[in-house]
Amino acid sequence: MPVPAAPDKKANFFQDVYEVVKLIPPGRVSSYGAIAAYLGSKGSARMVGWALIASHAQHGVPAHRVVNRNGLLTGRQHYDAPNAMQEYLEQEGVEVKDGQVVEFKRLFWDPAKELL
DNA sequence: TGTTTGACTTATG
DNA sequence: ACATAAGCCAAAC
């Protein structure tokens, strides 16, 4: 599996992803597809994932608030500990059960609609 | 330079 | 409901 080295270059797309993710309110979660759609690249949900992998090098990017459309914490394996992502979410008041956000539908934060 | 691989999503059988 | 395919695009090899 390829791993992004360091997005020190332009990576405007990456930077845009970071800004949107930073706007996600605590206790809320969003999805890759929603962010990708908000950025214009509707079918580029994967790129959002790439950006979040690279977000390790950034600061203030709550990547743990971004999950897939099922509310599943698919990215938890990219954290130091397998339950780190879940812990962060629970600290913010998000219920997580078996790596999946409970009431995801209710906590979902869509930038295209909330951010107008 | 070309192939492979995803922190995805939607469509189809 | 589960399995597979396809679209997407940048990075690693």
Automatic annotation (TrEMBL):
The keyword Aminoacyl-tRNA synthetase does not apply. CDD domains: ATase (cd06445). InterPro entries: ATL_DNA_repair, MethylDNA_cys_MeTrfase_DNA-bd, MethylDNA_cys_MeTrfase_DNAb, WH-like_DNA-bd_sf. GO terms for biological process: DNA repair; methylation. Gene3D superfamilies: Winged helix-like DNA-binding domain superfamily/Winged helix DNA-binding domain. It comes from the Bacteria. Residues 12-94 form the Methylated-DNA-[protein]-cysteine S-methyltransferase DNA binding domain. One of its GO terms (molecular function) is methyltransferase activity. Keywords: DNA damage, Methyltransferase, Transferase. This is Methylated-DNA-protein-cysteine methyltransferase-like protein. It comes from Rufibacter quisquiliarum. The lineage of its organism: Bacteria, Pseudomonadati, Bacteroidota, Cytophagia, Cytophagales.
